[in-house]
Amino acid sequence: MSATAxxxxxxxxxxxxxxxxxxxxxxxxxxxxxxxxxASLVIVxxxxxxAAFADFLATNDPHATDARRSxxxxxxxxLFDENGFNPHVYGLRGVRDMRTFKLAYAPDESxxxxxRLFVRGYDYDLLGLFPTNLHLFGVQGAKPGEGIFLFGTxxxxxxxxxxxxxxxxxxxxxxxxxxxxSLFLGVLLGGISGLYGGWVDTLIQRLIELLRSVPTxxxxxxxxxxxxxxxxxxxVYFAITLIISLIGWTDLARVVRGRFLALREEDFxxxxxxxxxxxxxxxxRHMLPSFASHVIAATTxxxxxxxxxxxxxxxxxxxxxxxxxxxxILLQDAQNIQVLSGAPWLLLAAVPVTVVILAxxxxxxxxxxxxxPYG
Amino acid sequence: MRxxxxxxxxxxxVRDLAVQFGSEQGVVRALDGVSFDLHxxxxxxxxxxxGCGKSVTARSxxxxxxxxxxxxxxxLLLDPGTAEETDLAALNPDSRQMRAVRGGRIGLIFQEPxxxxxxxxxxxxxLVEAVRQHSTASAAEARARAIELLREVGIPRPETRVDxxxxxxxxxxxxxxxxxxxxxxxxxxxxADEPTTAxxxxxxxxxxxxxxxxxxxxxxxxxxxxxxMGVIAEMADEVAVMYLGRVVxxxxxxxxxxxxxxxYTRALLRAVPSILATPRQRLSTIxxxxxxxxxxxxxxxxxxxxxxxxxxxxxxxxxxxxxxxQAGASCFxxxxxxx
Amino acid sequence: xxxxxxxxxxxxxxxCLFISVLTFxxxxxxxxxxxxxxxxNLAASGSSISVDQAAAMRHEYGLDRSVVVQxxxxxxxxxxxxxxVSMMWRRPVTEVIGDRLWLTMxxxxxxxxxxxxxxxxxxxxxxxRQYSFGDYVFTMxxxxxxxxxxxxxALILMYFGFRYLGLNVGGLFSAxxxxxxxxxxxxxxxxxxxxxxxxxxxxxxTAQLIRIMRANxxxxxxxxxxxxxxxxxxxxxxxxxxxxxxAALNPFASSIAYLFPYLVSGSIIVxxxxxxxxxxxxxxxxxxxxxxxxxGAIVMLLGVMTVVGTLISDMLLMWIDPRIRxxxx
Lengths: 375, 339, 329
Hints:
The complex is a heterotrimer. Chain B contains twelve helices and eleven strands. Chain B is of the alpha/beta class. In chain B, helix 7 links the parallel strand 7 and strand 8. In chain B, helix 3 crosses helix 4 and helix 6 packs parallel to helix 7. Chain B starts with 9 loop residues before the first strand and ends with a helix. In chain C, helix 13 packs across helix 14, helix 13 packs antiparallel against helix 15 and helix 14 crosses helix 15. Classes of the chains: A alpha+beta, B alpha/beta, C mainly alpha. Chains in contact: A-B, A-C, B-C.
C-alpha cells in the first residue's frame, strides 16, 4: 500500500516474476548460480546413468575369470594406423614363462582387433528387463581369452573396466538405499523430537548424543561380522544397507529437529493454529515446504558417508561378499602392497569413489546454500 | 546565498569525500562528494534517512571501510590549517599513524550496545586494552583509569562492574561502557553513530544528557549521527542534512528548524509527529523511497520525490554543493533566490 | 559450573553403560558361539571333539547360561579389571591386547593434535584472506581430504613409498624396536613413525575443521564488535586474533567432541592398511572368530577411552567459553 509518487519507475517484468516465484523456483534460481554445484549435479547424473546402463557400457563379462590373463596392464586404444582412422587394440598371445612353465597372455602387436561401437558381447538384461547382448563398444573378431581391457585385469583375469561399471551400480544404489532409510529414521525421530519437545525430545537427543560419542567402526564391524555366512548375496546387501543407515540417521534427525524447532515459533505457524488448522495440515501444508529443501540438502550431504561406509566395510571383507561387485570389493584386491606394486591399476577404483564423493559434497553444499542463503 | 560565517577552530574538515563499493552489479557510489566542517568543542549533527551514507561517512573518517569499499576521492583533514594538518584519507589504514588517531584522537560510539562489545572478555579487559593502546600506563594504572572511566559515564559501583562480562549488563549500561571505551584513549573528537537508536526512550534521554555533560567537561568536538530530528534539536549546534551520499543542507540548528532551505529538510521536519497537531490528522510522509545508490536519479538526486520541483533543470543538472563553513542548501531553489 | 561438570560426568557414565550393553548384544548376535566356530575350525583340519567335550567347553566359558546372566558375569568381572581369557589365543585378554590399546590412543591423539595445529591457522588464513590464491589452494586440498577415504590415502601412500622409495612406510616401529621393551629410545622411534599414520588419519577431520573455522570466522568478521576493536586503534592482526578468532573458536572446539570417536574409528581401518600394531587388526580377527571376550573387551575399552577423550574436550570447551563457566552463578 505504498503511495507511488510521481516519477517512480514501473515495476519491471523481471521484478514481477521474482516477486511471484514459488519457493521451489527461488531455490532453483539460486542453485543455478553456483557453477560448481551445477557441474556436480551433472556429474552425479552421469554416474547414475552409468549405474543404470552398467552392462551396456561394459565390454567383458564382469564375472568371467581366466587365470591365464591375470594382471594384464591397461590397454590403450590406438586410434590410427597405416589405413587412417581405425581404432583398435592389440590381441593377446599365449606366452609360456620359461621358469614357471605357466602360460600367460601378453599383448601381441601383430594382431589388431578393431574397436567398434555397438557390438555384440555377453548377455545381460538391460535395465533388468530386456535381455540383450548389445554393448556400447567392444572388439570384433576376438579369440577366446582376448578382448579389450581398458583398465587392465585383476588376479583372476577379470576385466577391471567392466567390473567398475557394475560396481558403480552396486555402490551407488546401496548408498541411495541407505540414505533413504536414514532419511526415514531421521525425519521420523527428528520430527517427533522437534514437534513435541519435552521429555520425548530430551530422550531422543540423548540417544543421538550417545550414538555420536561412540566410535562407529567397531560397531559396524561387529554387526557386519554377525551376518551369517549362509546368507545370500541379496540378503547381505540389504543387511549392509540397514547397518550403514543406522549410522547416518543421527545427522538428519538433528537437521529435521532444528528446522521443526525454528518453524514452530514462526508466526505463520501460529497463525495457522489460530485459524483452526489441524496438526496434520499444519505439518504437511505449512511446515514441510519450508524445510524440504534443507532436508534434501542434508540428505545429499549424507550420501558420501554412506558410500565411504560401504566401501570401507567391503574393503575389510565384512561388507558385501563376492560374487557381488562394489568399489570396496575392487579395492580389496589392492590391499596387498606386493601385489599392488606389480599391478598399480588395481587402485583405479579409488578415482570414481573420490570423484563421486566430491560431487555429492559440492552438490549438497550448493543445495544447502540455495535452500537458505542465510542459514 | 545568505552568508553565515562560523569562524572558529575547525577540528576536522571533510572535503569532497567520495566512497564507492565494487559489487557484481558494478560500482556503487555510497558517498558522492561530502564536505563539512566539525568545529572544535561543538556538536555537529548529521541527519538523514537510512541509506543516505551517514554511517559510511563516520567509518570512512576512521578508515574502517573494508573491501570492496574504497575511498575514491576527497580529503579528511585533521587539524586543518595547522602545522600538524594530516589527511586521513591518504594514510595507510593499518599504519601506526592512523591507529594512533583511532581512539587516540577520534573515538567512535556505536549504535548497537548488544553486539558492539565482545562477550568473551570482561568490560575491564576491553577498557584497559583501549587505555593502554594510547598511553604508557602500566596494567595497574590502566585498570584504575578504566574504573575512573566507568565512574565518569555514570556506572554505579565501577570497582565491581569492571570485572563483569558485557552480557551481564543491561542495554543502557552497555552503551555507557561503549562511551567509556570511546573516551579511553582521551580523544578530542568523538563520533557517535546513532548512539541512542537501539535504546528505549528513557535511557535515550539519559545517554544524551551524559554525552552533553562529557562534551562540556572534556571540550570534545562531537559528531552526532542520527535519523531523529528530536535528538538533533536537543543536541546539535550545527546540522548537516544528507541525502543519497551528499550533503544537501548545512545550517546552525536554530536556523535549520526555523527556516529550512532544502525541500528535503522541509519534508523531514513536516514528517515529525507533533503533539500540537490537530487530532486524527494524517501523518505527513515523503512519497517514494530512498533510491539505491547504484540507481541514482539523473540531475538532482532528490528530484523524483521533491514536491517543489521547478522544472527540467532539476532533472538535468546537479545543483552546486553546499560550500563548507557556510550555511546553505544544495538546491536550484537556492540558486534562484540568490540570483 | 560444578553442575555442568557433574552432568557431563553422569552422561559419560551412562554412555559407558550403553556401550557395554551394545557391545555385548553385538557379540552375541551371530548364530552359534565360539564353540561352534572352534569345532568348525577343527573340522577343517580334520579333527573333532566329542559332544561331551563340547558341552564341557560351553560350561567352562559360561555359554550355557542365560544372556542376562552372561552379561552380568562379564560386567562384574570387567569392573574388577578382569577381562577374561581370549578363546582364540588361550591367554588373558589384557595380555593379548597388551600395548595395542595405548598405541591406538597415541595415534588417535596424535592425529587430533595434528588436526588442531593444521586446521586452526589455515582456517584463520582462509577466512582473513578470502578468495586469495592461498585460500583457493587450501580449499581444494581440503576437498580432496574430505573426498578421499583415509584408507585409500594410506594405500596410495604405501604404494608410492614402496614403489619409489623402496621402503615400507607402514608400521609404528623400526624392525629392531618392534618387540623390544619400553625405553626412551623406543619412544623416540615411535615418535619418528607417528607423523605418517597421524597425518593420514587427520586429513579428513582437518579438512572439515578448516571449513568450519573458515565459515565461522567469516561470520564473526562481519560483526560489530570487530569494528569496535579496530576503532580502538589495535593492529589488524591483534584485533582479529583476540576477538573474532576467539568467538569462532567455540564451534571449532566443540567439533573436537565428535572428532575423537571418528579418529579412533578411522584408526582401525588405517592400521589395517598400514600394518600398525594397534587394536584394529586384532579386533577384525576377534570378530571373525567370534572370540567373545576379546572382541567385547576391545570394543568396550575403545568406547570408554573415547568417552574419556570427549569428556576432556568438554572441559576444554568450558574453559574457553565464559558463558558456560558462569552458568551456575
